[in-house]
Structure formats: C-alpha cells, structure tokens
Amino acid sequence: MLYGPPAAGKDTVTSALTAVDDRYVYFDRLKAGSGKSSGYRPTSADHLAQLHDRHLIVYANERYGNIYAVDSPRLDEIIIAGRVPVVHLGQVAGITALRTGYPARWLTILLWCPRDITRARLHTRGSSDLEERLRVWDETQADLAAAEPGTFTMVLRTDQRTPAATADLIHRTLTGDPHNVPPLREPLP
C-alpha cells in the first residue's frame, strides 16, 4: 500500500516498481464519477452499491466529487496470478480497512513530500485544481497525525530520493534482500 498526499509520488514510484520487477501491478481502483478515467476502472454508484451489498468492497472513499473503491475480486485476480498489487491510498482508514478486510502480507509505505514541493509538482503537471489538491494535502497531514503507531512499515521522503531508489528500497524490503537497506523511517518536515 502506498499512502500519501497528492503529488507525493505514488504513480511515479509505482511505475518505477513495475520497472524493477514485473510482478508488481498497479491496483486500478473502481471509480464512480467524472474526470480522469485513466488508471481507474470506471463504474457507476449503483454497481458499487451492489458490490458493497455482496461484501466485495474492501474500502471505498469519496474525494473530488467521485467514489473510489478497492474491491476484493480484483485483489484476488492479481494475487492468484502471482503478482503483487500496489494499492494507492490517501486515508489511514483505507489502510486499516485493507488490513482487516483483506488479510495479506501488506507492506504499508508512507510517501511524503513537503507542501511546497507538492505545489511545485502540481503546477508542473498542469493540475487545474491546485487549491483543492493542496487542501487534500492538509487533510492528509491531519489524517497522518491521527494514525496509530506502527501504521507504516516504511516512511520515505520522495523529495530526498529518486523514484528508482525508492522503488529499489521497497523491492529489497519486500523480497527480504537486506543488503544496504537504508533507514526505513525518514523524518517528516
């Protein structure tokens, strides 16, 4: 699980992970709503409700006027194929939901960058909703402050290491390769 505020590097680190080992696969969440559909499995709110009624939704949240969901059938599909799902989350409640609702050997990684770096990254990628995403950054920081100790296996600053170095560290930690693994908890600003 990759947790972090907008523009912390979840997509970039996931791309780097898939370059390290093709067993890693981005978990494409279900999305009901409008806007960007790339990277999601578009669906309807009615379909999500049906899946929820059948206890197939592990976690769902609303953000940016949309509903996003992690479903157990897609997790099953990835894991049965011998692959490693990389799930992006922006709420600590999602981490808890996945740990309790879909027991597995989860590695929980907080990807972090300061707010000014987030602003610069959002500006560079041409985000049209900059202020809303910065508000979400603030919400993520507050959510993080309420997280239980031990919520994260790793805390990594994406403004202090390259995506490739971050992916390599995650891969070595997941595969148990202890050679030169740096500290897994980097200080937050």
Structure description:
Helix content is 41%, strand content 20%. It is α/β, with parallel strands linked by helices and 189 residues long. It has a domain at 2-29 and 77-175: 3-Layer(aba) Sandwich (Rossmann fold), CATH 3.40.50. Strand 5 (57-63) and strand 6 (66-71) form a beta hairpin. Helix 1 crosses helix 7 and helix 5 runs antiparallel to helix 6. The longest helix has 16 residues, at 130-145. The model is unreliable at 180-186 (pLDDT under 50). It is an enzyme of class 2 (transferase). This is Guanylate kinase.
In short:
With 189 residues, this protein is of the alpha/beta class.
Secondary structure blueprint with pairings:
Blueprint: E1 2-3, H1 10-20, E2 24-26, E3 30-32, E4 41-43, H2 45-53, E5 57-63, E6 66-71, H3 72-80, E7 84-86, E8 88-89, H4 92-101, E9 109-112, H5 115-124, H6 130-145, E10 154-157, H7 163-175
Helix pairs in contact: 1-7, 5-6
Spatial strand order of the main sheet: 8-1-9-10
Provide the CATH topology of the domain at 2-29 and 77-175: Rossmann fold
| Percentage of β-strand residues | 15-25%
Largest sheet: 4 strands, parallel
Count of DSSP-assigned helices: 7
Query: Which consecutive residue ranges, at least 5 long each, have pLDDT under 50?
Result: 180-186
Q: Please give the CATH class of the domain at 2-29 and 77-175.
A: Alpha Beta
Broad shape: globular
Please identify, by name, the CATH architecture of the domain at 2-29 and 77-175.
3-Layer(aba) Sandwich
The ordered H/E elements are: EHEEEHEEHEEHEHHEH
Instruction: From the alpha carbons, calculate the radius of gyration and give it in angstroms.
Output: 16 Å
Tally of DSSP β-strands:
10
Q: Gap between N and C termini, in Å?
A: 22 Å
Mean pLDDT: 91
> Structural class given helices, strands, pairing?
alpha/beta
The helicity comes to 40-55%
CATH superfamily of the domain at 2-29 and 77-175: P-loop containing nucleotide triphosphate hydrolases
GO molecular function: GMP kinase activity
Protein name: Guanylate kinase
Keywords: Kinase, Transferase
InterPro entries: P-loop_NTPase (IPR027417)
